[in-house]
Amino acid sequence: MKGPIGLILLGAMIAVALVASLWTPQSVQAIDVAARFQPSSWAHPLGTDQLGRDLLSMLAAGAGPSLGVAALAAVIGIVFGVPLGLTAVACPGWVDEAIARAADILFAFPALVLAILIVAILGPGAVNAGLAIGLFNIPVFVRVTRAAARGVWARDFILAARVTGAGRVRISVDHILPNIAAVLIVQAAVQMSLGLIAEAGLSFLGLGAQPPQPSWGRMMADAQTLIATAPRLVLLPGLAMAGTVLAINRAGEELRARWVKGAA
User: Fold this and answer.
1) Is the torsion defined by CA of 240, 242, 248, 250 positive or negative?
2) Which of 196, 191, 192, 216 is nearest to 204 (CA)?
3) What is the pLDDT of residue 83?
4) What pTM was computed for the model?
């Protein structure tokens, strides 16, 4: 399948999240127990949940916290991990060793378990969930950046730049970063996808977005005991999350291909 399908789908999902932050077809806080478990209708295209809330509105409103946490976690990893990885390669010796060993120490602990501990300390909430997940994205980007940059530093044009008197910081920004950007784009898409799943896990445990703010993970957690009687309450947010993960990964590949084509 050709074309920017992933970018279009991801853009549509982001647009839905932005619109839902301002408006939804029906209020996600309006509880109508008499209207619970209603099937699809003109008033409720996807039916209602166990509290009589409109499922379409809940799914749309849940996109914002889920995508927001995943994006925040990826941004934290990029902002801190990429400069550290570039610094490690630009300063071989004890600086490189210190950064590499620090990343290894973080990798030694189960990421989700420590994320649960951090959120439990900071308090439940979407922002704290994003911070906790983002902390473990940092060593990922350190390793990826360090490995990719190490190969570029050995190339002839880097030696030519050093001969002209360019410093390590300038070389890292002007030459190393553009040459490893394609790798970082793909890794960012992967980490954002993993962040989306991790947010769902934290929300499932009650440590993510808090009521009345919906999220896909919380929707699945609230409906876990109803999967036999009302499976759509679990399947719909699960399908939304799975489709978003596929769109993010496809968008990452498309951005990588565009970057490589533009640099060629």
Assistant:
1) negative
2) 216
3) 95
4) 0.90
